[in-house]
Amino acid sequence: MARSGTPDQPITIRNTADSAAAISGPTAGVVIDGQHDIVLQDLWVMKLADLPAVDLRDAAGITVQGGVFSMSDASTAPLARLAGVTRSTLTGFRASGAAVVDGLILDDATTDVEVRSVIVSSPPVYGRHENSVGIRVDGPGNRLVNNVVNGFSGAGVALGPEAADTVVVNTQMTAGGGFGIHNHGALRTAITNNTVQSRCRDGIRVDGASTGTSIQNNMLMTNGSNRNSYCDKTDGWGAEIALFDDSGKRVTVDYNNTMHLYDPAFYSWNGLGMMLVAFRDTSGQAKHDKEVSDYRDREDSANSAAPGYLTTDRIGAGRADNPAVPNTGAGPVTYADRGAFETLGSPTAALDIALDLGASSVTLDASASTPGFVPLTTYVFDFGDGTVVTQAKPVASHTYARAGNYEVTIKVSGSDQRVATVVRPVGVLPRTGTVGLLALQNLRYTSAAQAGASAQADQPALGADGQFDLADAGNGQVALLSRATNRYLSVSATVLAVSTAVGPNETFVLLRNTDGTISLKATVNSRYVGVSSTVELTAIAPGITNAEKFYRVNVADANRTLKATVNGRYVSAESAGAKPLIANRATAGPWETFDLADLGSGQVGVFAHANNRFVCADNVGLNPLIANRTSAGAWEKFTVTRNADGTTSLKATINSRYVSADNVGTNPLIANRATIGLWEKFTLAG
Question: What are the two backbone dihedrals, phi and then psi, of residue 327, each rounded to the nearest 5 degrees?
Fold first, then answer.
């Protein structure tokens, strides 16, 4: 850069929002030398070898915002280097390198620089470069806020002797071959609310003068162990917090949590490992520190008056008070958590959807939502068509003016304004009927008993689990909504009752076969739905066999009884269907219950519950009716006549004769009458 901007009008170099362009090559970094008021935004700098991705020298008012910086595998150059830089901000970028000596360097002439929300990474292996450092600060008055440091063989963060008044807060630091945070003699530094984990040497180490340093609210876990493969076994054991050179008499250590799984030394005083009680006696510090075995034992116990403390955690979440945990912290906010992350106690949103295709309506039920730290008080329902309902109750309904797929949303919150959201698609289609599907393969009804489970042809009768709304999906296609689960049947490895919306996996072409059965051809793969050997429905057949055929039974025509008008008796498939039908029962049970299967062209098949067989006008109608057929052929087809007096008559298709309760109902039913009289009338009920 050869020019400078002004504080009001900085020079800005940025990647456009839709660009994936990158500066790439061994010398592809950005150098600013002697200029001021410049913004670098969302730059991608890749495959560097000889220079840092960002090299700032004797500069001021520089903002590096966002971006990705990546070094070549062999490069030892730092990821970013600041020399003599003031009044500048580095924020939101990711930088990584396999062999870098240092990640980010702020030299001893750099001051008033904030590094915020930066991710710096390298492999953790100790032998790659001795004492490589994630972020090295040698100048005074700088701030490291909300950063992530992964790897590096030396310290994750190293503060040199001249780095006075530096703040290191809300750092998330993971595995590395060296120290976590190392203050090597810097005065008045604030090391606050950091989470340091799995470093091979001390988690936080302070040595040299370091007068006025504060180490508070930190969470330190499993540091100082050389058991990990990336550790140098010759280094020996470290501690979670280590004070050297009598620094313990000049620093403040308090309100920290230590969680140490291996060696028993949680603390170190001039290299002597000790537990918390001994460390307190020796150093006079750590009055409110805790040795813990549970990571969660850090809630509502931090010191909000600690130097460097922020009102938000590493990801920007505000402090939250868990009412189930006593507030044992200090300062103006006694419920802040230790470490880089606040336990938020956020609510969770749950949504159950009930579709009523007949009314073109949907009911959203958020009753299963759970509160966070405070009770839920507000439910915001967005029905996806511009209708938004805000209320204190968890259930709301809405009727749609137009059919279609919509995206519905529920937001739940309490008095702390923490919000949980669930977004789900729904399909509100015109209902053309409610049916059961009786499989020809095994004469069992298809059921969908549980949302997300496979539909199965396993029910002897049409019950609640077997009822499906047949919906018009447009373009000659249909969808089937399980009324028991409020889910559409969807084609996957099997046919599942899983979806609340309708797409290619949920639509079918309904075909009427010449024998009166129907078949369903899946839109998504042009395969037919059939009954597998395990009675699960699948859509894998390229053609139609008996396994891909179903009888359509309208729900209104299922579980019906026939009472003969002539004697007031129910028609029975006597002896579990072994004998002809006869109207001789005063009450109705399974032998007296029938389904009328829709065979098309105004014809029905009479399906007896007594033995799961179709009723037949046997011997071309010359013999009495008997329930003994496994499919509905010509002898098993009837037409239904609705009489003016509200009764019903059945005409056998095979001989065009009406079914009669012959001889005042004392004889078996037979299709032998050309006209309808009293003996040919029945009351259809159920």
Answer: -85, 105
Distance between CA atoms of 125 and 99, rounded to whole angstroms?
10
Report the chain's mean pLDDT, rounded to a whole number.
94
Share of the chain above pLDDT 90, in %: 84
Q: Compute the Cα dihedral for 247, 248, 250, 255 and give only its sign.
A: positive
Instruction: Among 517, 552, 587, give the residue marking a domain's end.
Output: 552
| Greatest Cα-to-Cα distance within the chain, rounded to the nearest angstrom | 117
What is the pLDDT averaged over residues 568-596?
98
In degrees and rounded to multiples of 5, residue 477 shows phi and psi of -110, 160
Q: Which of 46, 53, 57, 47 is nearest to 29 (CA)?
A: 53
DSSP 8-state code for residue 466: G
Classify residue 66: in a domain, yes or no.
no
Closest by Cα among 262, 254, 256, 147 to 198:
262
Tell me the per-residue pLDDT of 593-612, one tens digit each, with 9 for 90 and over. 999 999 999 999 999 999 99
* CATH code for the domain in which residue 564 is found: 2.80.10.50
Do residue 178 and residue 313 come from a single domain?
Answer: yes
Residue 18: pLDDT above 60?
A: no
Q: What percent of the chain lies above the pLDDT cut of 70?
A: 98
Residue whose tokens read 């924020």: 91
Cβ-based burial of 74 (10 A; exposed 0-12, middle 13-18, buried ≥19): exposed
Answer whether 176's CB lies under 8 Å from 214's CB: no
In a shared domain, residues 524 and 478: yes
Mean pLDDT of the 610-635 span: 98
The pLDDT tens digits for 382-394 are: 999 999 999 999 9
Per-residue HEC secondary structure of 304-367 comes to CCCCCCCCECCCCCECCCCCCCCCCCECCCCCCCCCCCCCCCCCECCCEEEEECCCCEEEEECC
Owning domain of residue 415: 352-428
Please indicate, yes or no, whether residues 308 and 418 belong to a single structural domain of this protein: no
In which band, very low, low, confident or very high, does the pLDDT at 19 lie, cut at 50, 70 and 90? low
Q: Is the pLDDT of residue 638 over 60?
A: yes
Q: For 577-606, what is the mean pLDDT? A: 98
Residues 447 and 299 in one domain: no
Q: Which residue carries 């505000």 as its tokens?
A: 318
SS3 357: coil
CATH code for the domain of 361: 2.60.40.10
Q: Are residues 526 and 618 in the same domain?
A: no
Three-state DSSP class for residue 277: helix
Torsion sign over Cα 12, 13, 17, 18 = positive
My answer on whether 447 and 407 are in the same domain is no
CA distance 144 to 235: 28
Question: Is 15 within a domain?
Answer: no
Q: Judge whether residue 362 has pLDDT over 80.
A: yes
Q: Is the pLDDT of residue 127 over 60?
A: no
Q: Exposed (0-12), middle (13-18) or buried (19+): which is 646, by Cβ within 10 Å? A: exposed
Triad 586, 589, 595: Cα angle to 5°: 115
Q: Which of 496, 521, 552 is the last residue of a domain?
A: 552
Residue 97 — pLDDT band, cuts 50, 70, 90?
A: confident
Phi, psi for 570 (deg, rounded to 5):
-80, 140
In a domain, 9, yes or no: no
Scored b (16 or more CB within 10 A) or e, 421-431 reads ebebebbbbeb
φ/ψ bin of 358: left (φ > 0), alpha (ψ from -120 to 50), beta (otherwise): alpha
Q: How many domains does the chain have?
A: 4
DSSP assignment string, 596-622: EEEEETTEEEEEETTTTEEEEETTTTT
Residue type, 656: S
Contacts of 229 (CB under 8 A, 6+ apart): none
Question: Mean of the pLDDT values across residues 178-194?
Answer: 97
